[in-house]
Amino acid sequence: MVYSPYIDRRRENGWGLYWLLGITKGDKDKMHIQHRKNFEAFGAPVCFFFTIDKELGRGSMLDYGMFLQNLMVAARGGRAWIPARKISKYLSHPEGGGRKNLRHGSTKLMDMLN
Questions:
Q1: pLDDT band at 63 (very low <50, low <70, confident <90, very high)
Q2: Residue 105 C-beta-side C-alpha neighbours within 13 Å
């Protein structure tokens, strides 16, 4: 569960993005089209998936996060890389069909889109 002020910032950012795309709060069709782009990797030609064992502690998560940050910086070479979490949630959900693709005991940390 995400609490205030973080959920408020996330919502403000999301509605700001929708406003830039010309999507109003009640326009469900356009909202669904934009939401679906998460699962199409926003048209990225490359999508990497990173996992980490659930048994590892916070220190390992911090180390891994710094590794991934450095990987994104080093891999730029004229392209932008972004972390994305929506695909992770889908792939690790039983209905998403991806849970069986994840190693037992691991958790998705993030995806990287290029």
A1: very high
A2: 3
